[in-house]
Design brief:
6 helices, about 260 residues, seven-stranded antiparallel beta sheet
Amino acid sequence: MGKYQLDLVVRSVRTISSDTFLLELTMPGTGARLPEVQPGQFAEFLVRGSETTFLRRPISIHDVDYQNNAIYFLIRKAGAGTAKMSELKTGDTINVILPLGNGFDYATTMPKHPLLVGGGVGVAPLLLLGKAMKSAGIRPEFLFGGRGKDNLLRIDEYGKSGKVHVTTEDGSCGQKGFVTDHTVLKEESFDCIYSCGPTPMMKAVASYASEKGIPCQVSLEHKMACGIGACLCCVEDTKDGNVCVCKEGPVFNTEKLLWQN
């Protein structure tokens, strides 16, 4: 699969929550089409106009609409770079390298009852994964967690692909507690788990999967300046030695990671 450096055009920037926005981009020019994307891959954004942002910003690909030639990114304003991106206007252009990394692997095993677990803005890549599974005849279930109701992002969109379960730490929506406290983990049996979100959450999910003997894939979040394994700022120690998350990942089978040690 090729990698492309493109000047994409902004179609819209929509506020999702106090610190999160949805960025919709498209290819410029008549007949220009977006490249093929795998769920779990990401893009590197060049941010202009920010005096403190020198490196590209890695952002998970949230969704792709090939019919309308649109690609979407669910982005949390975490610093000067992403805050500047939130100021983009319709018609602006932004330089993007994509698609990068290795995504979730579901086609090899074709799970019958997968669970997709996300927390906060980490739910972003799970939308495209759920839609791809549904298109392949797989009906996924989702398990999402957040500090409160405001941290649950675009839940209705995920519900179009499968059943959604929710937890919040303050009990403002769904069951109170963490994702690993949800009763669905006790009441149902899953044959594969896919997860993205805060590292402590993913480690807890990986531990649950290991105890139950369920294959588990996680999307790691690291600083990734280049996206091609050249800058070595996203190294992760695995059972196969040190690897660059941007090149070998960002998705890994948890049995390859050293989390359980």
